[in-house]
Design the sequence.
């Protein structure tokens, strides 16, 4: 076993040469792939979604490794990808085919899956014209991640423009047309007056007598959009009021301050929940002086006596291979996330339709946080709350600066929804 | 005779009983004392029986009860403590200490039902009193059980005919729930009976943000303007905005004795925070009611520290008119320093000549150095030396180091300045230059710093730029300093030329990344977003290891509009 000095020198020389040679080769030749880890090694989770989206937009292919290192992504190793990642501070790992094979083997043998991402979805955000992006968690996230979107409002929706888009997002719009009942506290505030006047002007322009009538028509168009294959993602008050507006297509559920006529006394009984996405057997709050729409929301943030404190919610783990859609929507580097208020913060279990997929809930609480379901040829996802990084979200609070929260777990849920329509359809296994 | 005997017997009996009671109390006191000693030496288990013994006869069992709570908690035997408390409560059902310890023990043990029952017993034992509600609500709030605390306080309002007597607890609860308006209103009420909770109020309300702050301000600012409530608002402004705003809240009060005390305390706090000018104003306000020379000295010193030497001089003059000589030495030194800062080294020198002989040796030494330093800061090295010689003082390290630098003696300056703990902007700049070159002499660098001392920014920029050719090893740094100085004179064009040169000709120097960043900031403020983005991308991609990359990314976000504009830019 004793190696002669001359042989040792020769062996060492060979090893050194091989190492140096390998380094040179590694430097000269790019690795074949870039792995974008989404676990704690990632330095900017939110921008990573933008990197993938823009790669798809530019015609590149990507893969989403569900449940592998926090829901990592795979990209081709091209200079432009490295450049973008470096500029945005996104961590990436160059890997060769050998390493990729090992990863695929690990994915095949675990509760993981690789989903091909093929094209960047066309995104529409339902938001008033000229609204800055800072008061809507989704526009905030898209703006920060560098993901393109088109703002649409009542005119475009009524004109049928939603068919141009794969993905529609709604935030804190009140589709019952009651402007979130904010007239209670803000009726003289300039921004509220402006919002009301803008709504009335749009209603008249589009041939509707009142704001509630216009919003009902808009909600119906959105229902049809999903029925025909669109993806709808809603947060905050839009989740609850969209359901109310759809189910109330033949019922007056708007207070007289909004449309001049009182709420139908038998509104609860006359609602048609068969048309709605997520809810059923809902009790409508008829008192104009109670700042709540219904018993859908579990937290009732604006009703002093009913307001529930914030806790934290846990994401459910799904089978990546058998339930890839729900798996995509819950990819994250944390499973427990601090809760955050919104006009609608959560969804009471008693008002959920059977068959709704619950993706996150608070342990022991009578409400859930994050739900999903199919409707017609399309699907919808609802996330309660307004801004994951501003749990209280008081009106007039400074806008959230996402550069201070580049690894926000709550915002990841939003961006999962943005990428989910990019996935190549697989035949359902269940 | 018989009645006399009976009286004697009665007195004897009383004497015996009194003696027995006295000796029993002595024994209990001794037991408590020994128990505390044992607890202090960590022998809690041995202390428990003594605490129990001490409970026996004393009229005030609080000390023994608290001791038992501490020791039993350490021993981990909650049931024993509860048993003892029960026996105490049989004799003293209204005892607030025993009741509180019982509630605390049950709450900490997560025995919610038993705690609620104990609370109800307490409420029934002291009908109409707010203490049970306060104690229980506070325990629940501390445990984060806001919902239960809410129920307890609602019950309190029903039983006590309103929330006034539990206002502090309600205030804390509402604050925990983010109901700022109610919380602020309750804190106002609570100050009527518990002004000592002022710090708690600031802590709770301080968490509010956005328009909620304005709501709180409006509530606390409303009449009547009580001192305790103004102090809360002042504390909040100190957290939310600035010491100046905090002072504005207090200064409107009518100066009673307590208000002046509050002003003086505020001034001392402001000095701690190095908000010198606000401290000066608070002292000035207090002086309106309290004519004390010591306050004038503090106001003058605060003015000087705050960079307002003219104000310091005015204070010094005002004290002179009082003909109070108790602080003459200190005030003369303040005046000398103020004159020096104002660039009136000649006047400072004259003052030294005039008053120097009246100073004690230590003050005189300080005064001589202050005048010499004034000459140094004016760039007159020769007069600085003359002052020191005339005053019989050795040049201190600071003066010697700066004089060496102005003379171009980099070697001596390097040694001298490194020994100092001076953190002024000029000192940091000088040290950074001296650390970058091995040259031992450079007249150009001396002239450049001399020009800076004379506040001649243009000349300094020009000297730094021209010297860069001669001091080759520090060339990029000298150019970067020149660019920065040109920028401060609004000569951005010259700055941009230098930055361009740094990026192209000194690409490997640390200043190249800095040039990219500074140039990008200028371009962004000029509205040239695309050019700014190009510079920032160049920095991030070319110098990925630079410590400036996080700043560059932040600037890049702002230039691209992917994050909200900085608050000052929001209209």
Sequence:
């Amino acid at each position: 076993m004793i190696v002669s000095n001359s042989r040792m020198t020769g062996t060492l020389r060979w090893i050194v040469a091989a190492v140096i040679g390998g380094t040179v080769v590694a430097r000269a030749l790019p690795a074949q792939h870039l792995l974008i880890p989404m676990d704690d090694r990632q330095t900017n989770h939110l921008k990573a979604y933008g990197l993938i989206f823009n790669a798809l937009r530019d015609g590149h292919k990507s893969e989403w490794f569900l449940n592998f290192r926090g829901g990592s992504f795979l990209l081709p190793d091209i200079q432009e990808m490295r450049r973008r990642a470096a500029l945005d501070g996104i961590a990436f790992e160059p890997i060769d085919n050998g390493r990729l094979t090992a990863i695929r083997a690990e994915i095949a043998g675990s509760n993981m899956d690789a989903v091909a991402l093929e094209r960047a979805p066309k995104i529409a955000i339902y938001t008033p014209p000229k609204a800055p992006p800072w008061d809507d968690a989704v526009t905030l996230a898209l703006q920060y991640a560098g993901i393109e979107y088109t703002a649409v409002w009542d005119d475009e929706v009524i004109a049928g423009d939603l068919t141009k888009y794969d993905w529609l997002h709604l935030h804190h719009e009140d589709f019952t047309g009651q402007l979130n009942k904010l007239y209670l506290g803000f009726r003289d505030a300039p921004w509220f007056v402006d919002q009301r006047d803008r709504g009335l002007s749009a209603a008249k322009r589009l041939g509707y007598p009142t704001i509630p009538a216009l919003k009902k028509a808009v909600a119906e168009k959105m229902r049809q959009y999903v029925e025909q294959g669109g993806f709808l993602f809603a947060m905050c008050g839009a989740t609850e009021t969209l359901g109310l507006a759809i189910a109330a297509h033949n019922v007056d559920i708007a207070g007289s301050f909004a449309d001049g006529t009182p709420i139908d006394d038998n509104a609860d009984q006359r609602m048609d929940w068969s048309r709605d996405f997520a809810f059923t057997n809902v009790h409508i709050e008829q008192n104009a002086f109670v700042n709540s729409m219904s018993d859908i929301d579990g937290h009732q943030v604006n009703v002093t006596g009913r307001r529930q404190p914030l806790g934290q919610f846990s994401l459910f783990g799904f089978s990546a291979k058998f339930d890839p859609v729900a798996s995509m929507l819950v990819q994250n580097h944390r499973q427990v996330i601090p809760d955050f208020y919104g006009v609608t913060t959560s969804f009471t279990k008693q008002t959920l339709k059977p068959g709704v997929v619950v993706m996150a809930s608070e342990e022991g609480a009578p409400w859930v946080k994050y739900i999903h379901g199919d409707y017609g040829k399309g699907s919808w996802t609802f996330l309660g709350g307004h801004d994951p990084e501003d749990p209280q979200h008081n009106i007039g609070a400074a806008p959230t600066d996402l550069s201070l929260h580049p690894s926000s777990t709550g915002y990841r849920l939003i961006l999962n929804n943005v990428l989910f329509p990019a996935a190549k359809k697989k035949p359902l296994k269940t | 005779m018989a009645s006399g005997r009976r009286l004697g017997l009665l007195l004897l009996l009383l004497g015996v009983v009194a003696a027995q009671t006295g000796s029993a109390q002595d024994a209990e006191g001794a037991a408590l004392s020994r128990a505390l000693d044992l607890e202090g030496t960590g022998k809690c288990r041995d202390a428990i029986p003594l605490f129990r013994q001490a409970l026996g006869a004393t009229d005030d069992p609080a000390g023994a009860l608290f001791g038992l709570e501490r020791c039993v908690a350490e021993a981990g035997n909650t049931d024993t403590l509860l048993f003892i408390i029960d026996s105490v409560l049989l004799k003293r059902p209204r005892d607030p200490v025993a009741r509180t310890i019982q509630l605390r023990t049950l709450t900490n043990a997560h025995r919610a039902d038993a705690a609620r029952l104990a609370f109800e017993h307490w409420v029934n034992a002291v009908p109409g009193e707010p203490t049970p509600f306060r104690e229980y609500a506070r325990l629940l709030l501390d445990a984060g059980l806001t919902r239960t605390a809410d129920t307890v306080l609602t019950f309190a309002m029903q039983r006590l005919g309103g929330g006034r007597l539990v206002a502090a607890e309600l205030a804390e609860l509402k604050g925990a729930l983010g109901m700022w308006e109610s919380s602020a209103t309750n804190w106002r009420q609570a100050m009527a009976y518990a002004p000592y909770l002022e710090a708690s109020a600031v802590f709770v309300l301080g968490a509010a943000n956005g328009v909620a702050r304005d709501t709180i301000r409006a509530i606390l600012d409303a009449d009547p303007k009580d001192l305790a409530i103004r102090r809360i608002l002042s504390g909040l402004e100190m957290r939310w905005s600035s010491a100046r705003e905090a002072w504005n809240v207090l200064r409107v009060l009518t100066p009673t004795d307590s208000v002046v005390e509050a002003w003086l305390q505020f001034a001392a706090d402001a000095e701690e925070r190095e908000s010198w000018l606000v401290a000066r104003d608070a002292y000035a306000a207090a002086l309106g009611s309290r004519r004390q020379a010591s306050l004038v000295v503090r106001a003058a010193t605060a003015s000087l520290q705050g960079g307002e030497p003219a104000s310091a001089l005015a204070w010094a003059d005002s004290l002179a008119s009082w003909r109070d000589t108790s602080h003459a030495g200190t005030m003369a030194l303040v005046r000398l320093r103020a004159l020096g800062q104002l660039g009136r080294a000649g006047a400072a020198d004259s003052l030294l000549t005039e008053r120097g002989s009246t100073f004690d040796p230590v003050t005189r030494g300080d005064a001589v150095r202050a005048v010499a330093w004034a000459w140094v800061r004016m760039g007159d090295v020769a007069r600085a030396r003359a002052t020191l010689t005339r005053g019989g003082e050795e040049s201190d390290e600071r003066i010697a180091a700066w004089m060496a630098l102005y003379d171009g003696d980099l070697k001596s300056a390097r040694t001298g300045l490194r020994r100092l703990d001076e953190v002024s902007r000029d000192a940091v700049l000088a040290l950074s230059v001296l650390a970058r070159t091995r040259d031992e002499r450079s007249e150009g660098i001396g002239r450049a710093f001399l020009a800076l001392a004379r506040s001649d920014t243009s000349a300094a920029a020009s000297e730094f730029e021209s010297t860069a050719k001669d001091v080759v090893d520090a060339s990029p740094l000298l150019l970067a300093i020149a660019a920065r100085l040109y920028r401060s004179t609004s000569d951005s064009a010259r700055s941009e030329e230098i930055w361009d040169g740094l990026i192209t000709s000194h690409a490997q120097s640390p200043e190249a990344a800095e040039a990219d960043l500074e140039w990008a900031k200028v371009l962004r403020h000029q509205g040239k977003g695309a050019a700014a983005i190009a510079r920032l991308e160049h920095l991030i991609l070319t110098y990925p290891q630079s410590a400036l990359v996080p700043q560059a990314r932040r600037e890049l976000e702002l230039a691209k509009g992917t994050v909200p504009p900085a608050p000052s830019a929001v209209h």
Remarks:
- The longest helix of chain B spans residues 2-40.
- Chain B has a mean pLDDT of 85.
- Chain B touches chain A through 27 residues (CB under 8 Å).
